[in-house]
Amino acid sequence: PSPLERSTDRFLREGGQGILGMTGTVQNLTFPEAPGLVNVRVVNMQGDVRVRGQQREANGPTTVRLRPAASIDHGPAISRQLEGLKWNADMKPQADGSRLLELTLSVPDPKAWFIRCEIEIDTPRLGRVEVSTDHGRVLVEDNRGGVTVKTTFGDVRMRTPWAITEPCRVDVRDGDVEWIVRGESSGKFDCESVGGKVNVFEIGRAHV
């Protein structure tokens, strides 16, 4: 297969770790189905992050897709930095019956400014979401819990049919925020964008 077609599939019970390797080497991770909500915490160096739940009650596994890349043409130094890109994924049971998926990506080389990774997470019952990235867009859909996002140079969009009653916070630099929630939602919503706009929509109402 071509470099863009290569991938590694892993079926994980609790967690795993590894090296992403050259651009085009995609990691597909699968955590088996279990009762309760899945809360998600992502720490990414750079790149887009998409976290999606389901609009209705659903069952099934939690899947994670990691696609590394470099934002400039490859050279020997960039190739070495890509080869050193590491990931760690853990699914941990919580006291309230939920599970916490923690995903962390890192590059040992402090000069790996052009290395990024696109992350996609799908789970049937999405609870709380925390995402930290840089130079990346963040999409959170069909969550049932609070959302905390920090990014730069990328838009943030949260859209859910579930009423949100937990605190939410979004910090964005040079990006817009679009927040779409049910009218029954309540609690503290703290959304701030430096160099962008914040739009909050409720069912039947819109505030700009």
Biggest sheet features: 10 strands, mixed
Strand/helix succession: EEEEEEHEEEEEEEEEEEE
C-alpha-based Rg, rounded: 17 Å
Instruction: Kindly report the spatial arrangement of strands forming the biggest sheet.
Output: 1-3-6-9-5-11-13-15-17-18
Weakly predicted, low-confidence segments: 1-5
Instruction: Say how many strands there are.
Output: 18
Distance between the termini: 48 Å
How much helix is in the residues?
under 10%
Mean pLDDT: 85
Number of helices: 1
Give the class from helix and strand content and strand pairing. mainly beta
So what's the oligomer here?
single chain
**How much strand content do the residues show?**
over 45%
Morphology: flat
Can you put this structure into words, describing what you see?
This protein has 208 residues and is mostly beta strands. Helices cover 4% and strands 50% of the residues. It has one helix and 18 strands. Strands 1-3-6-9-5-11-13-15-17-18 form a ten-stranded mixed β-sheet. The longest helix is centred in the middle third of the chain and has 8 residues, at 76-83. It is flat.
What features would you highlight for this structure?
10-stranded mixed sheet, flat, 208 residues, 1 helix, mainly beta, 8-stranded mixed sheet
SSE topology sketch:
Elements: E1 7-11, E2 15-19, E3 26-31, E4 38-43, E5 49-52, E6 62-70, H1 76-83, E7 86-93, E8 99-106, E9 115-122, E10 126-132, E11 138-141, E12 147-152, E13 156-159, E14 168-173, E15 177-181, E16 189-194, E17 198-202, E18 205-207
Parallel strand pairs: 1-3, 4-8, 4-10, 5-9, 5-11, 10-12, 11-13, 12-14, 13-15, 14-16, 15-17
Antiparallel strand pairs: 2-7, 3-6, 6-9, 7-8, 17-18
